[in-house]
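Aggregate trends can hide what the representation actually does to any particular protein. This step matters because it turns folding into a mapping between discrete strings. For completeness, the protein is quoted in full, as a sequence line and a line of structure tokens:
=====
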Amino acid sequence: MSVERRERTALARSKEPPILALPLLGGRALAVLYLSALFLPLALASLRQVAPLDPWELAGAGAGLALLTAIAVQFVTSGRFGPVSGRLGIDKIMAFHKIAAWWVLFGLLLHPVLYVLPTLLDDRARGMDRLIAYYVLPHYRSGVIAIGALALLVIGSALRERLPVRYEVWRASHVVLAVIVAGAGLHHALTVGRFSALGAINTWWWAVAATLAGVIATLYGWRWLWLHLHPWRLKSVTKLADRTWELDIQPAGKTPDLRYEAGQFVWMTVGARRFPLFDHPFSIADIPSRRGISLIIKEAGDFTDQVGRLAPGTLVGVDGPYGEFSLDSHPGKAVLLVAGGAGIGPIMGLLRELVARKDPRPVRLAYAVGQPSNLACVGEIEAAKAVLDFEAMLISETGAEGFSGETGWLDRPRLERLLHGLAPNQTVAMICGPGPMVVAVSDMLLEHGLPMERIVYERFDYAAGSASRQDRKRFAQFLAVGAAVIAGIAGFVAVLA
């Protein structure tokens, strides 16, 4: 890592709330820590002396021990803690969060079934009676509540785009359900768990409960306090294009300026709603050397439809910076910037930083929108040609009189024309836009010869949809972590059987 990059990273970290300013971890280190956390209760439970259990019953117990811990870890992986999300980016963190939630749900649904499986194999009627008992007897009720709340949480998240509720309402219900799952699950483990009544494993669950209380207090107490002790103020709102606005936000009072890398993002709240449940992620479309931050926001429903009507002087809450979408984190000898629609925000941040540095590298930009009136910052993009080795391709799905750019989509011929003369293995591509566009461009760049690690994208879109080759590789890596969890449970069974 260069001295300049180390300095920038240190500055970016320095503006996190102090409790979160910890070393950033990479993907492999996080995978090891994740598996270690899930295996620790299995190791502690293996030290307990309990009545002999059938291997299937041990598998059910092991699943409960490991996956209840996984629920607790979910609070951390989605909680915007720098050590977890600082080097992976929001796309990877939320993809793992979703996949892990599904395997936790599936495993905990199997938890009671595995306990009664030996009885089911010997006597089906008696086994079904025993299984039903697990769901209806009062002392198992907290476990049933935990599984039911988890099912609502996971399925509700998968269907979020189809639910007729505001984002803030869904998000609040998500938090409430998550707390119910964790609280009821811990109560179930401590009151009826085969291994958890006494000893080190009992202490482990109390430690997990205390940790979760600390996490929740940090997310919704400490961060609320931080937002109110360090307010920002909206200086101006400027219309850039049809339904696209630029917000100039400045630190208010004694609030220090934000230290960040161009391309990172913040979570923003406004007015009296400066509480973490009401914040929304927006990329910084600015350069670190300028005081304050600029956000380019396109109206897309709910909160964003209001940004054009925000009055100068409005108090703003800024939580950040977050993310890895920066050129300092992804070096290359040539730069390709690709923006689609609202994705122009972070791309303009990167372009403005390149212009401010008078960066000598070749820089290419592809900017695609639905219609020409959606194009923002066209004059600024054109002016970059006077400072950089720069070419830009403006693309509109529908043409219009006077529009001199390309009409259609960013297809492979256009992309290859833009990349002509650039060495694929030395070019870094930074992409931000709608999910389908990101997927298509990412795969086309792989076919063109760019290494996968040099194709960086950000979507802020967690709904299920098409997946790029990079997404599929990441999914396979996540499944490998899940397989390791199963192997750990199998090892627990082998030790105690």
Observations:
- The two ends are 49 Å apart (CA to CA).
